[in-house]
Amino acid sequence: MNIQLEKLELIKKVLETNDESIIESIKSIFKKEKKDWWDNLTEEQKFEIEEGERQIERGDFVVYEDLIKKYR
Do 26 and 46 belong together in one domain? Predict the structure, then answer.
């Protein structure tokens, strides 16, 4: 199978159709293909990110520039 040829044939079919349901179906396929990076994280990684957000909300963080000043 020549993937480039297959894509060109699909493009041609899409351009020739006036059937909105076909266009919507194709759009739906591509939307399903988009995966949120969050879904690929482990539970531990999600927890760590959420904990970091909670620390920021509490003001429990150090500004990068202040950290650099401290160690220069």
Answer: no
Q: Are residues 27 and 40 in the same domain?
A: no
> What is the phi/psi pair of residue 35, to 5°?
-110, 140
| CA–CA separation, 15 and 32 (whole Å) | 22
Is the pTM for the entire model greater than 0.70?
no
| CA gap 55, 5 in Å, rounded | 52
Are 41 and 71 found together in one domain? yes
Q: Which domain holds residue 9?
A: 1-34
Mapped onto helix, strand or coil, the DSSP state of residue 71 is coil
Confidence bin at 4 (pLDDT 50/70/90): very high
